[in-house]
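Subgroup meeting minutes
Present: P.N., E.W., G.H.
Scribe: E.W.

1. P.N. recapped why we're keeping a running log of single-chain structure predictions: easier to compare across weeks, and new members can see raw inputs and outputs side by side.
2. G.H. added today's entry (325 aa).
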Amino acid sequence: MMTRGLHRFTLALVVATFLLLIAGASVTSHDAGLATSDWPRSNGQWFPKMVGNLFWEHGHRMVATTVGFLTLVFAVYLHRWTLWRALNKLTGRKSVIAVYRNEPPLWLRRLGLVALAAVVAQGLLGGLTVKLMLPLAVSAAHATMAQLFFCTVVTLAVLTSAGWNEDGHIIDEKNGWPLRYVAVAAAATVFLQLILGATLRHSATWDQYLPTELVVAHVTGAFAVLIVLGGTALTVLRRYPNEEYLTRPAVIALGLLFGQLLLGLAAYLTRLASPLDPQPLNPMIWVTVAHVACGALVFAAAIVLALRSFRLLPATASGFELAHA
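Output recorded in log:
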């Protein structure tokens, strides 16, 4: 049984994770990843004097710790009845609660554990990047895991919402490719583009030029996202104009996609000039951070659209199959 409080907590976790993404992007843009050479403490202290680049690096760690704690609380809350039963079994007491009516479903409890495992893995990857002096593979994996964790908490927010759990109607699939699979393809395309972006960002510091082949790959990925996600959103608006549950994330995805393309162009132009600058300058830093943040929001919109298409559309014969029967 879902409660409004549980959904609000997941929304708070989504916001905290989004702020963590911004904090991580700020560390990279300020070239502050090695502001301290130790981990998890900074300069041998849990609460060092946060000046210079240490403000960004240790601040990032503090936000990450907060997100990890919130995720742990969330997982424990989901499994509170399981823990209660285990405690009763160990102590030999009989439970005074005969029916656990408010116990979350098994799939939600498992997804909570997935989120907890993901945030732990993300923290370990973060420590590894420092210990190994920011190798490209580990740094890109750290950024990629951040997006996967964000995807997980966004999914939790959708699955605990009232719109998902209320007895809603099922709509008929229109002729053409099944929307649920098209939406999944759009979300997967966005995720692959985020991996390319993370690899590109960590391939060179601010005083070096970006590798041409990675720039070309990232631009090509941007066109792929424009075609696949843009086409998916337009398909939703054309097929189901009166289904606000679907059209709202579609419109949001289109708006974010347009903004992301503009931010991507601005980020490239400012980054192109940064090797000639004496230090990372604010225009390059904040445009790039905004580009990373908007990319995460595009991914979130694609995830929500995919999940909602699974919620409303039947899993039986698709519109494509019916049209070619």
